[in-house]
Amino acid sequence: MTSVFLPVQELSDCGGLNHQANEFSSQVKSLMLLTLGLTLLGEVAGRKTPKAGDPALCPPLEDHTVRVDIRILRQNQGIPLSHGFQNRSSTPWDYNVTRDPHRYPSEIAEARCRHTGCINAEGKEDSSMNSVPIQQEFLVLRRESQGCSRSFRLEKVRVTVGCTCVTPIVRYVRGLRAADQLS
């Protein structure tokens, strides 16, 4: 498209072109204003207004410290276990409570397998199977070593939570004869 620029007095002599040019100019201005308005509307809609409690309003945790209320909410929500649960297993276990005043929780119940083998249907230990501990890692709070400080650090602890019965791992040495293995 070729643009033609005429002086204003010549436009007045063009028999209605001046009116058409003004109308076209007005339409272009309206279209540009509409485009600008839609662009601004898109920008505003794309921004999220932070609300109270929004993490975007919170300061960064550069020093890696947080404040924690250690009271447990809904304490009674746990699933109650049968009293003899650990006694009915084919790999029974006992619980030992460890206490540490510098840890939260200060008491943790840890399982200890009663036997090295598993209990068969007759109630006898079967040494052809192995009783092994089931372990779980937990996060606890460890009090900083500044007396009765209210400062704690997160610490991972591995706790035996029960025992299970497994087949033993058997490794054979190549090249040995059965007679050599017995002697």
Give a verbal description of the structure:
With 183 residues, the protein is of the alpha+beta class. Among the domains are: 11-44; 84-166, Ribbon (Cystine Knot Cytokines, subunit B), CATH 2.10.90.10. It has helices at 8-12, 17-46, 85-88, 178-182; strands at 93-99, 103-104, 107-113, 118-119, 125-126, 130-143, 152-166. The strands form 3 sheets. It has a 3-stranded antiparallel β-sheet, with no helix packed on it. Strands 1-3 form a two-stranded antiparallel ribbon. A two-stranded antiparallel ribbon has the order 4-5. A hairpin with a 5-residue loop joins strand 4 (118-119) and strand 5 (125-126). The longest helix is centred in the N-terminal third of the chain and has 30 residues, at 17-46. It starts with 7 loop residues before the first helix and ends with a helix. The model has no long low-confidence stretch (mean pLDDT 77).
